[in-house]
Amino acid sequence: MGGFPILSVMMLVPLLGAIACLFMDAKPARMVALLATLIDLALGIVLWANYDIGGAQWQFTESAGLFAGFEYALGIDGIALMLIMLSVFLMPICIGASWEAITKRVGEYMAAFLLMEVLMIGVFAAQDIFLFYIFFEAGLIPMYLIIGVWGGQNRIYAAYKFFLYTLLGSVLMLIAMLWMVNEAGTSSVPVLMEYDFAPEAQTWLWLAFFASFAVKMPMWPVHTWLPDAHVQAPTAGSVILAGVLLKLGGYGFIRFSLPMFPDASAQFAWLVWGLSMIAVVLTSLIALVQADMKKLIAYSSVAHMAIVTVGLFAFNVQGLEGAMMIMLGHGLVSGALFLCVGVIYDRLHTREIDRYGGLAINMPAYAVLFMLFTMASVGLPGTSNFVGEFLALAGIYQANSWVAFVCTTGIILGAAYMLYLYRRVVFGIQKNADAAAMPDLSVREYLLLGPIAAAVLWMGVYPESFLAPMRADIELLDTRLAASAPEGDAHLAIGEGAPPAEEHAEGGAH
Amino acid sequence: MDYSQSLALVLPEIILSISGLILLLLAAWGGDKGARVISIASAVALGGAFALVAVAVCSGAAGPDTIAFGGQFRADAFAGLAKLMIFAASGAALVVAPRYFERAGDMRAEFPVLVLFAALGMSIMVSAADLMTLYIGLELNSLSAYVLASILRDDERSAEAGLKYFVLGGLASGILLFGMSLTYGFAGTTNFSGIAVAVSDGLSTGQLFGLTFVMAGLAFKISAAPFHMWTPDVYEGAPTPVTMFFASAPKVAAVALLARVSLEAFGTQADAWRQIVIFAALLSIVIGALGAIGQQNVKRLLAYSSINNVGFILIGLAAGTLAGASAMMVYLAIYVVMTIGSFVAVLLMRDANGNQVENISDLAGLSTTRPALAWCLLALMFSLAGIPPLFGFWGKFVVFQAVVEADLLAIAAIGIAASVIGAFYYIKIVKVMFFDEAVDTIKGESDTPHWALLIICAVLISPLGYLLIGPLGNLADRAAASLAVAF
Q1: Quick one: which of B343, B354, B353, B351 has its CA closest to B301?
Q2: ipTM
Q3: What mean pLDDT is reported for chain A?
Q4: Which of A200, B188, B370, B446 has its CA 20 to 30 A from that of A310?
């Protein structure tokens, strides 16, 4: 790529678009927003195509001495690359989803979304810990406005809750960051990732970071902002929340907590496991009884994210790869599910499950796509989530079989609530005349759901495309964690009859 | 050091006093007709003083060459930076005031003169190297301020504000004087460097009492809790340009003075005053945040916001290091810009008849009726709350960085967690402006000087402000380094 600052350009394009949108009427603002996000998608594809798999750990690095006290330093590894791809892929879809649904203050709406895109790319590309924090926190402002201005009835409560919850989580992390930078003498993320903090300091630092990432993730019991925010946000807002913002927590764990505080991570693995086990079972059961479609999907997100956290804290390659794959897959699938809800919400203006029924008759194409995403959410082989969930659960099984056992029930419960939702909405008799009269997907809606469906199948059938760029980085992280990883509970014994082969025994015990 | 050199060092103050006296005579003979001319002349005088100080600050004035009148007065870079902020804030008050008072039908020629004398008093305060100089500066500022608060003679609230300020300010001055006399009695000198020598082997009980009372008196002036009671009433009652002036310039002066007394005179006894400062800082943050939640009036809300911000500034002082002093100066500079911006926005809140509206409920739906004003206020509110990427974040950042470097982690954690409570009422204003149904009361015509000032402030606190981190940090570091710290 030579010296072309592609990451900066990817942030600059939507930023300029956002400023332009603020001063525009509805029609041109929509066009500008779509254009800016499509340019970013194209740049993202260029980025991926030029990413050198197996090359340097940090690629496309840029830095400029713009500020004192912290540096404007950007650069990505495979993990960041994949998450940036997810963001730039979902953004044009979000703009498309808001094309007709948003009619008031369109310019400001589009500006807020483009600003979100800038900040998300910034979060994943930042190589300075304070720059990361600035991008991480700044996302609160556009999201607060998106929920509060364009949300549903109870939007103000949801906006407050979202803002204050996530702010409280993050400020303690800032103090921890200040301490770390003071101790290590640098604010560069790659250097800090290799810096060994004293174990007792790690405990406190880990907790401070955990406070922030657990809220963003969100983990039980600090997940309660999510269903409120999701239900009240407009469709595109939910897609961005579920698709990308929830990934900030997981990204934080994999970029900061695990490599910077490996000892503390091992020390607190039981805490993460425990909270995740509760989350998987509890939120799946809660999802089962929801009458509101968006709330159901929101709770399912919490359950999926809990499998991400157990994967991350399995301390082995499979767990980490699985966690990353679920994050990518869940980003696509939950985004698509929210879009599916949005499609029928735009027609009937209710999210209540009972108001629908028998949509397979009048909306067959919709029913097919909805089925695909439902199955992907359940984790059917051949779809994206299967790969991630299988790897993550296989990873945690090596660390602790009980955790694996409890978390696997989440898959069964997931199938229960998703299929139950699908049956009530799409199958059955057409009991409501207005729901029965709804037209099938429009061209615009095909264009929104089609690409996601293709990506979901691609990720399920050939995950190697997505795993390859991340492999080296995950192995690096695994070696960093190897020394402190907790011992697995599976003490495999070799049976009497088996030929005593040293390397087989070792392979089995891992 | 001869007398001419001393006079050269106080040249900015001389300019202010002479022009103040001349303009006072003009005002006395010319009457209120010449108010506008006197305003402009005052602004020019402030500008001249600003330019003179700016030269000294940029050269990083420090050391014995900055001491005038045998150790009474120090024109070092620390004082210089504070003076720059004071003069700029006073100038802003002069810019916004004429339109406001003309609309109220009561533009008085004394107003600019009083602002000039207040600026002079503050300028002496921040340069004080002796308790006597300190008191002269402080009283010159306070007396001008009492009159300024009640300058709208026909307005009951203004008169009430002036009276309240006067009574409570008099009490605080008494406390301060009592502390000063105790300090003098037990240290044998009023000079800061002399006090530093006297207390270098530990504080006697008398000295500790002196220190405590001096701190309490100064805490009143910066409206730090628990000496903050007067702030909401005075801020609400005083005319808005005066409130803007109170919330910006005197805060800078008193905080700089407090830093100088703590670090220069009692620098060796940091443990003694640190407890007081930490207590006042955390209490201010919490009271400022909780008190603001129930407010219906924008000016009262901003009063609590200023109490809250003073708490964060004091956190920088609690670090007790040069980095802490530098962080305070950075925070002050950003705070002054945010405060001026917020009050100018309040000035722009006028109904169809041109009357000022001050209720938060009148802001409802402002983003649809007056989008430019709403977006500026949004930036100011998030900046005051310290949310990145707005520049207000940087002030909090440097302050907490200083405390963490000084290893006061518990203070840092409690302080920053309390800042979340404060965020609530800032985002409440944003909620009212952006989420609520429009009431469309605010439709006053635009005033060019007000808008210009608001836009300058908005640009400075926008993410573009981060480009200033380098120069501002340098200035503040040099200012802190010029303190004659006694550790």
Answers
A1: B343
A2: 0.91
A3: 86
A4: A200
Per-residue b or e along A207-238, where b marks 16 or more CB atoms closer than 10 Å to that residue's CB: bbbbbbbbbbbbbbebbebbbbbbbbbbbbbb
Any domain includes A441 = yes
Looking at the structure of chain A, the number of domains it has is 1
Residues of chain A with C-beta less than 8 angstroms from the C-beta of B416: 171-172, 174-175
Cα distance from N-terminal residue to C-terminal residue, chain A = 41
Span B235-271, pLDDT tens digits: 999 999 999 999 999 999 999 999 999 998 888 888 8
CA distance linking residue A304 with residue A324, whole number of Å: 12
B69: left (phi over 0), alpha (psi -120 to 50) or beta: left
In a domain, A126, yes or no: no
DSSP per position, B359-425: BGGGGTTHHHHSHHHHHHHHHHHHHHHT-TTSTHHHHHHHHHHHHHHTT-HHHHHHHHHHHHHHHHH
CB A428 within 8 A of CB A361: no
Closest residue by Cα to residue B87 from B58, B48, B50, B134: B50
**Domain of A473, in residue numbers:** 261-484
Asked if residue A219 belongs to a domain, the reply is no
Residue pair A440/A364 in contact (Cβ under 8 Å)? The answer is: yes
Cα–Cα dist B57/B53, whole Å: 6
pLDDT score at B445: 67
Confidence of residue A490 (pLDDT cuts 50, 70, 90): low
Model confidence at A505, pLDDT cuts 50, 70, 90, reads very low
Residue A500, pLDDT > 60, answer no
pLDDT surpassing 60 at residue A510: no
Q: How far is B463 from chain A (nearest CA, A)?
A: 10
| For A168, nearest residue in chain B (alpha carbons) | B420
Using the predicted structure, report yes or no on whether residue B306 has a pLDDT greater than 60: yes
Span A174-191, pLDDT tens digits: 999 999 998 888 888 888
Q: Which of B4, B2, B77, B14 is nearest to B45 (CA)?
A: B14
For an interface test with A, the pick among B285, B398, B403, B420 (most A C-beta atoms closer than 10 Å) comes out as B420
Nearest-CA distance A78 → chain B (Å): 27
Chain A partners of B393 at a C-beta cutoff of 8 Å?
134, 137
Question: How much is the pLDDT for B380?
Answer: 92
Q: How many CB atoms lie within 10 A of CB A493?
A: 8
Q: Is residue A151 part of a domain?
A: no
User: Distance, in angstroms, between B221 CA and closest chain A CA?
Assistant: 30
What are the tokens at B389? 């990427």
Quote the radius of gyration of chain A (alpha carbons, Å).
22
Sign of CA dihedral A86, A88, A89, A95: positive
